């Protein structure tokens, strides 16, 4: 139970514990999470970005093997509930929880002075078994600080997507639907898929070009997975029609003709190739994109 922003290595350790218990005791595995993120509700004046939006989080959890994701709408009134009231109202009466695995430093309820022993006693009163998860640290961490979503957001903000992946335990991803664009990429010889920016609260890395892998229809049965791709994030400064809004475009390099309009794509960033540049002409931009494609092909060891 928690926000699970990023579904990082610390979250995954807890989720594996849930999966083990569910399999052993013949239970349905599940995660209880909140939307909106508590920070967006309790501190709307503070700048805050999410590593994973709700649907992205749901996809990652299902890919790990979680069978049920229960999303509780987070409100100010919910934040003012006591731990006992929250556990009774949501975990017992609504969700009928059998076993609750609580993160090693997780707290819930307005009465912050409670510790795990208190949660265990309250849960036992309602017939819920309460188990404490273990803290997780990277094996090579000299400081042995727990993995945190806050630290991962900082890596994303600087474009260090490989470092973010090291702490996430999976690539940083963008999930979005393909929308109709201006067809500029097609005119340049690179038919890109324009992705709807999922939310103003999505944490995006700096503008530039990235190596990526794309999965088409990630929730569906006919998904095509891990297609080598070239991803652009930026404001198209070379075009006269450039706007300040951030654009996301991806060029799939699988060697097939893809029909993507309206499709949902999961784009997993592998590494950053270069920062965003301004070019004097579309021809100069085309030449740079060709060089970018060659670099991406070398990265993925693709033949021409």
Explain how this protein is built:
The chain has helices at residues 9-25, 38-42, 54-64, 76-79, 83-94, 116-125, 149-157, 161-168, 184-187, 282-300, and strands at residues 30-35, 68-73, 99-102, 129-132, 173-179, 193-195, 208-216, 224-234, 247-252, 264-275. It contains ten helices and ten strands. A six-stranded antiparallel beta barrel has the order 5-6-9-8-7-10. Strands 1-2 form a two-stranded parallel sheet. Strands 3-4 form a two-stranded parallel ribbon. By secondary structure, the chain is α+β, with helices and mostly antiparallel strands. Its EC number is 2.7.1.26, 2.7.7.2.
Write out key terms for the chains shown.
10 strands, alpha+beta, Rossmann fold, 2 domains, FAD, Elongation Factor Tu (Ef-tu), domain 3, six-stranded antiparallel beta barrel, 304 residues, EC 2.7.1.26
Write the layout of secondary structure elements.
Layout (H helix, E strand, L loop, with lengths): L8 H17 L4 E6 L2 H5 L11 H11 L3 E6 L2 H4 L3 H12 L4 E4 L13 H10 L3 E4 L16 H9 L3 H8 L4 E7 L4 H4 L5 E3 L12 E9 L7 E11 L12 E6 L11 E12 L6 H19 L4
Parallel strand pairs: 1-2, 3-4
Antiparallel strand pairs: 5-6, 5-10, 6-9, 7-8, 7-10, 8-9
The class by helix and strand makeup works out as: alpha+beta
The largest sheet is: 6 strands, antiparallel, barrel
Strands of the largest sheet, in order across it?
5-6-9-8-7-10
In N-to-C order, the SSE pattern is: HEHHEHHEHEHHEHEEEEEH
> In total, how many domains does the architecture comprise?
2
């Amino acid at each position: 139970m928690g926000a699970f922003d990023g579904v990082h290595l610390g979250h995954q350790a807890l989720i594996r514990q849930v999966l083990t218990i569910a399999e052993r005791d013949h239970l349905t595995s599940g995660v209880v999470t909140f939307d909106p993120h508590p920070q967006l509700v309790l501190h709307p004046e503070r700048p805050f970005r999410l590593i994973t939006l709700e649907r992205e989080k749901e996809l990652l959890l299902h890919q790990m093997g979680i069978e049920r994701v229960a999303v509780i709408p987070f409100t100010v009134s919910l934040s003012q509930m006591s731990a006992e009231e929250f556990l009774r109202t949501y975990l017992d009466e609504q969700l009928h929880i059998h076993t609750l695995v609580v993160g090693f430093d997780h707290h819930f309820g307005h009465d912050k002075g409670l510790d795990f022993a208190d949660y265990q006693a309250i849960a036992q009163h309602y017939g819920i078994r309460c188990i404490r998860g273990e803290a997780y640290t990277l094996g090579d961490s000299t400081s042995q600080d727990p993995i945190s979503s806050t630290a991962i957001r900082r890596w994303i903000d600087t474009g260090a997507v490989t470092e973010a992946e090291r702490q996430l335990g999976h690539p940083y991803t963008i999930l979005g639907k393909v929308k109709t664009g201006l067809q500029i990429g097609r005119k340049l010889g690179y038919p890109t898929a324009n992705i709807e920016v999922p939310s103003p609260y999505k944490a995006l890395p700096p503008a530039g070009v990235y190596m990526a892998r794309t999965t088409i229809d990630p929730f569906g049965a006919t998904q095509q997975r891990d297609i080598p791709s070239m991803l652009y994030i930026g404001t198209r400064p070379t075009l006269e029609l450039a706007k300040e809004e951030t654009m996301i475009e991806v060029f799939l390099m699988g060697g097939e003709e893809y029909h993507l309009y309206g499709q949902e794509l999961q784009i997993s960033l592998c590494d950053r190739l270069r920062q965003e540049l301004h070019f004097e002409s579309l021809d100069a931009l085309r030449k740079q994109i060709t060089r970018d494609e060659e670099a991406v092909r070398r990265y993925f060891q693709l033949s021409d």
